Amino acid sequence: MQILNGNEVSKSIREQIKQEVIKLKASGGKTPHLAAILVGTDGASMTYVGAKEKDCMEVGFDSTVLRFPATTTEDELLAEVEKINNNPEIDGLIVQLPLPKHIKEKRITEAISYKKDVDGFHPMNVGLMFKGLPCFLPATPFGIVKLLEHYKIDTTGKHCVIVGRSDIVGKPMSILMLQKNCTVSICHSKTTDIEAHIQRADIVIAAVGIPEFVKGSMIKEGAVVVDVGITRVEDTTAKNGFRLKGDVEYASCAEKASFITPVPGGVGPMTRVGLLLNTLNAIKMK
Ligand code: NAP
After folding, report:
1. Contact yes or no for 233/205 (Cβ under 8 A)
2. Going by C-beta distance under 8 Å and a sequence separation of 6 or more, which residues neighbour residue 181?
3. Which residue ranges have their beta carbon within 6 Å of ligand 1?
4. Residue 153 near residue 181 (C-beta atoms within 8 A)
5. Which atom of ligand 1 is nearest to the CA of 190?
6. What's the 226 CA to ligand 1 centre distance in angstroms?
7. What is the pLDDT of residues 91-125, one digit of tens each?
8. What is the pTM of this model?
9. Closest CA to 204 of 175, 232, 228
C-alpha cells in the first residue's frame, strides 16, 4: 500500500507555481491577485481563509481578504461582489461558505463573474467543465485529479465509484473521472446496497461527510481509496478540542488498498493547491 501524500505533492506544485510567478513578474506580467470574502466569525471559515492567504503569500500572489460582519445583508454583499467583478486588479474571487442563513449562497456565488470564479461554482464554469472546455474546475475534484496523475494511477477503463453527489465534490468529480476514461458510478443517500457498488470499485472516492463510512470490508483488494471527508470530532486531548476524521476507516481500508489518502494530509492540501492553480490560470486565460 502506498500513501497518496497530498502534503508532499501540493508542496511540489506550490513550488512550480512560485517559479511561474517569478517568471511572470520578470517578464512584466501581472501578479496574480486572489480576493476572499469572509462574512461572520465562523471558526472553521476563518481558518480556511487564513490558510488560503498563507498559500498566496508562499507562491508570490497578492491576496486581499474582505471581512464583513454576520449582519451584512444580501444586497450589501452583492454590491461588494460587483465591486470586485469590476476591479481589474483582482483576478480571482472566492466567497467563503457557509454564509449566514439570511443570505442565499446561490445568489452570491452566481453573482461572481465567471471569469473570476476560481472556485468553479458558477453555472458557466460548470457547463464549460461538462463540455471539457477551458474553465475553472472546482478545487477539490481538480486537486484529486492532480494527485492521481502525480502517482500515475491508471484510470482508463477502471470503475470509479464516487460516494456523494454534491455540486462541489461528487458531481464534478464524476465528470472529471469520465474525462479520464473511467466507468463512473455515483452513490448517494438513496442508493440501495451501496456496499455492492463500492465492492466493485477500482477507485473509490468518498465525499459523504460521515466519519469512517467506508470500511475495509466494503472495498476490493487493491482498490485506490480517496477520502474527501473532513468532519471535526470532539477530542479533549487535542489542543483545539477536536480532530479531523475522514469518510474512510483508514486502518481497515489501508490493509486492502493499493493507494490511499490520509486525513489530514491527503485531499485537503490538494484542494488548496487547486485554488492556486485556478488563480494562476485566471491570468493565463485573460
Ligand atoms: P454534502 O454536500 O453534504 O454531500 C454529501 C453527499 O453524501 C450527498 O450527496 C449525500 O446524498 C451523500 N450521503 C449522505 N449520507 C449518505 C449515506 N448514508 N449513504 C450514501 N450517501 C450519503 O457534502 P460535500 O460538500 O460533498 O462534502 C463531503 C465531505 O467532504 C464533508 O466531510 C466535507 O467537509 C468534505 N470536504 C472536504 C474537502 C477537502 O478539501 N478535503 C472539500 C470539500 C468537502 P444526498 O445527495 O442523497 O443527500
Report:
1. no
2. 155, 156, 157
3. 140, 163-166, 168-170, 187-191, 194, 207-210, 228-231, 267-268, 271
4. no
5. 47
6. 13
7. 999 999 999 999 999 999 999 999 999 999 999 99
8. 0.97
9. 228
Residue type, 143: G
Q: What amino acid positions are annotated as catalytic residues?
A: 52, 96, 119
> At the topology level of CATH, where does 139-267 sit?
Rossmann fold (3.40.50)
**Distance between CA 83 and CA 217 in Å, rounded?**
52
Measure 97 CA to ligand 1 centroid, in angstroms.
15
Alpha-carbon span 201 to 221, nearest angstrom: 10
Nearest CA to 208 among 245, 250, 234, 235? Answer: 245
Architecture of domain 28-113: 3-Layer(aba) Sandwich (3.40)
Place of cell 465534490: 169
Helix (H) or strand (E) holding 184, with range, is: strand 183-187
Position of cell 445583508? 73
Give dist(CA 154, CA 159) in Å, integer.
11
| Cβ proximity of 98 and 105 under 8 Å | yes
Q: Do domains 28-113 and 139-267 have the same CATH topology?
A: yes
Give the model's confidence band at 10: pLDDT under 50 very low, under 70 low, under 90 confident, else very high. Answer: very high
The grid coordinates listed for 16 are: 512550480
Instruction: Spell out the residues 6+ positions from residue 233 whose beta carbon is closer than 8 angstroms to its own.
Output: 211, 242, 243, 244, 245
CA 201 to the chain's CA centroid = 22
Ligand 1 geometric centre to CA of 124 (Å)? 23
Q: Which residues are 33's β-sheet partners?
A: 62
Domain spans of the chain? Answer: 28-113, 139-267
